[in-house]
Amino acid sequence: MERAKRAALAALYTAGTAVVVLLLLLTAIGSGQVLFPDAMLPMELRELASAWLAIGFLPMVLVSAQLYKIVRRKAVFLPAVACLLALLFWVGVWTVGMVRA
């Protein structure tokens, strides 16, 4: 049972890390094309990727914390830190938007 739990946790962490890396690449070098121009808040691809990074903060922290109990390396929190930075960015954007409104 413990071995299956460890394998499932490793698979979740690997998939989450792959998604974080892909979204970071899209955020850094993504196109400036607006995906949904008729939306109320049209966003470019890189903005949308950073928003998904922010949304993924909590799941990535939970999986990283569980994996940390097994491997005891702080490096497992790097994808969660990237998601936290995206979350802080969007909180700052929303705060500035509300202050200016």
Mean pLDDT equals 93
**Strand tally, please?**
0
User: How far apart are the termini?
Assistant: 54 Å
SSE succession: HHHH
What is the strand content? under 5%
Q: Quaternary state, please?
A: single chain
The biggest beta sheet is recorded as:
none
Number of H/I helices: 4
Rg from C-alpha positions? 16 Å
Helix content: over 70%
Structural description of this entry:
This protein is mainly α and 101 residues long. Helix content is 76%, strand content 0%. It is built from 4 helices and no strands. The protein has helices spanning 2-29, 45-55, 57-71, 78-100. α2 (45-55) packs across α4 and α3 packs antiparallel against α4. It is elongated and about 50 Å long. The termini are far apart. The mean pLDDT is 93.
Task: Tag the structure with descriptive keywords.
101 residues; mainly alpha; elongated
Question: How are the SSEs placed, and which strands pair?
Answer:
Layout: H1 2-29, H2 45-55, H3 57-71, H4 78-100
Would you summarize the structure shown here?
This protein has helices at residues 2-29, 45-55, 57-71, 78-100.
